[in-house]
Write a structure and sequence with these properties.
The complex is a heterodimer of chains A (299) and B (199). By secondary structure, chain A is mainly β. Chain A has strands at 29-43, 48-62, 66-79, 86-99, 106-119, 129-140, 145-156, 160-173, 178-189, 201-211, 220-230, 236-237, 242-243, 249-262, 266-279, 284-298. Chain A has no helices and 16 strands. Chain A has a 14-stranded antiparallel beta barrel. Chain A has a two-stranded antiparallel ribbon with strand order 12-13. Chain B is built from 12 helices and no strands. Chain B is 75% helix and 0% strand. Chain B is globular. The mean pLDDT of chain B is 91. Chain B folds into 2 domains: 1-121, Serine Threonine Protein Phosphatase 5, Tetratricopeptide repeat (Alpha Horseshoe); 135-199, Serine Threonine Protein Phosphatase 5, Tetratricopeptide repeat. Classes of the chains: A mainly beta (299), B mainly alpha (199).
């Protein structure tokens, strides 16, 4: 569901050696480049017909000290007769620094995301969006406990700012074969008239990832199931690197995905999602069924 | 009275002996007594001398023993800066890095050692720990097999090889290698447990 409007990314990376290093040499950087695509069909919507997108992401880490991610997404929403289609480009840039202070049994990460979004929305309501999303996270050395606190401030045209808090906990089960992540979504639009009457929305998202180990059914490395209850609008997703600026109010959803490791450095992720939405202005409840695919190489 | 005099003279003698101690002697004595911070502080005066890189390595080691891993990394880094040819300092810095689970950074320094000295045992061992930490089982299996050919009596390398086989689901190979571990260390806990079906 988080990828409803992420759709695709194309990244040109300018990765500089901003982090201090005693010696510069090949092998210090670990880089992942990936392409993604999504297709979704709306059901029961008076306005929306389908959504498509494509793009790529380039991400690079310098040893375990930090890293950068850059991307550019293209999203197209085909509307039903009577409404204008929307085409959108979204630039995503993210930087992070890792810290391992003595006395803390794990790694702390400080991260900052920036989103710049432009589209041809005739109302300008969803065009020219800028979002700034810092996050502080902790992962224990045994990789059994995780915590993060994310914040996002999104600036929209026509008198709307959105503040968002996303406290998150994660923990491993079954000797690390399963990972559970729970994230709260608290989103406060500054102008209810620009947020379909919402002054605050609350949602809880749960994700379960299971790794298969040596015995891989259908060659799967892992499967992922996620669900969201509650409501959210104008969400900024740290995991997906996406802003749901085009969404109506999301009212729950589920997704199921699987990842394959294709050799030593290639991987493919495929997901199916179904999300429910409500356009309060039109009293229009509808759903989106979408398929998402991500192909990545690492070197 | 005689006993007190003897103790007095002994104390005087010891204090004179300590007063004549070199910073190195003092550092080793304090380390042996488990006083790692003091052992490190004893070497502060050596910073400007020709043995500064050795002093920095020792201080890196002593910081590591105290669990002050960031400080340890800093000392080893300064030792490398002082003597860029030092393989020991590069092997040394892998210790605090591995303790902090900075696998890739530890592997980076271990590979620098191996580029100069292809079968440096310590560097290979640290690199295997880093590969295990990153769950690079195929890489670890290939690597451990190569090292085991060079160090055939070494059980530690075989344990890494056996673990890699086990994680890859290569049960027969894992059992065979764990068996070889038991030939070298009869009663090895991990090998015994695996072969008994309780890995």
């Amino acid at each position: 569901m988080k990828r409803t409007y992420l759709i695709a990314t194309l990244n040109a990376a300018i990765l500089t050696a901003a982090l201090a290093a005693p010696v510069w040499a090949a092998g210090e950087w670990s880089t992942t480049a990936g392409a993604q695509a999504v297709y979704g069909s709306y059901s029961g919507s008076t306005q929306r017909d389908q959504v498509t997108g494509f793009g790529a992401v380039l991400s690079s880490d310098y040893l375990e000290r930090g890293g950068f991610t850059l991307g550019l997404n293209r999203t197209d929403i085909k509307m039903n007769t009577g409404s204008e289609d929307i085409g959108q480009n979204a630039l995503f840039a993210s930087g992070k620094l890792n810290f391992t202070p003595d006395g803390v049994a794990g790694r702390l990460t400080g991260r900052m995301d920036v989103h710049l979004i432009n589209n041809d929305d005739a109302t300008n309501d969803t065009d020219g969006v800028k979002a700034y999303a810092p996050q502080v996270s902790y992962l224990s050395f045994d990789k059994r406990r995780y915590f993060d606190l994310g914040y996002a401030r999104s600036n929209y045209r026509n008198d709307l700012e959105v503040n968002q808090w996303t406290p998150t906990v994660g923990f491993a089960l079954n000797e690390g074969a399963d990972w559970v992540q729970l994230r709260g979504w608290v989103i406060d639009p500054s102008n209810a008239a620009r947020a379909q009457g919402e002054t605050s929305t609350y949602a809880l998202e749960a994700k379960l990832t299971h790794w298969f180990g040596a015995n891989k059914p259908l060659g799967l490395d892992n499967v992922r199931l996620s669900g969201l209850v509650g409501e959210r609008i104008y969400a900024v997703d740290h995991d997906a690197g996406a802003v749901a600026n085009l969404s109506d109010v999301q009212r729950g959803g589920v997704s199921l995905g699987g990842e394959w490791k294709l050799g030593k450095s290639l991987s493919m992720l495929a997901m199916l999602s179904r999300d429910n939405y409500r356009n309060a202005t039109l009293a229009d409840d509808y759903s989106l069924t979408s398929g998402y695919i991500w192909l990545a190489g690492k070197w | 009275m005689k006993a007190w005099l003897a103790v007095f003279f002994l104390m005087v003698a010891v204090s004179f002996a300590w007063a004549d101690e070199s910073p190195w002697q003092k550092s080793y004595r304090l380390e042996a007594a488990g006083k790692y911070a003091e052992a490190s502080a004893a070497l502060e005066s050596i910073n400007g001398s020709g043995e500064a890189d050795f002093a920095l390595m020792r201080r890196g080691w002593l910081s590591y023993l105290q669990g002050r891993y960031n400080e340890s990394v800093d000392f080893y880094g300064r030792a490398i800066a002082k003597n860029q040819k030092s393989l020991e300092a590069r092997n040394g810095v892998t210790l605090p890095l591995l303790a902090q689970q900075r696998w890739r950074e530890a592997a980076f320094y271990a590979r620098q050692v191996l580029a100069e000295s292809a079968f440096d045992y310590t560097a290979h061992q640290r690199l295997m720990v880093a590969e295990e930490g990153q769950r690079e089982w195929k890489t670890l299996a290939e690597h451990a097999a190569r090292v085991a050919d060079r160090y055939p009596s070494d059980a530690t390398v075989l344990v890494y090889l056996a673990r890699a086989h086990a994680w890859l689901g290569e049960i027969t190979a894992a059992r065979k290698v764990y068996g070889q571990v038991l030939s070298r260390i009869p009663g090895h806990i991990e090998a015994t447990a695996y072969l008994a079906g309780k890995p």
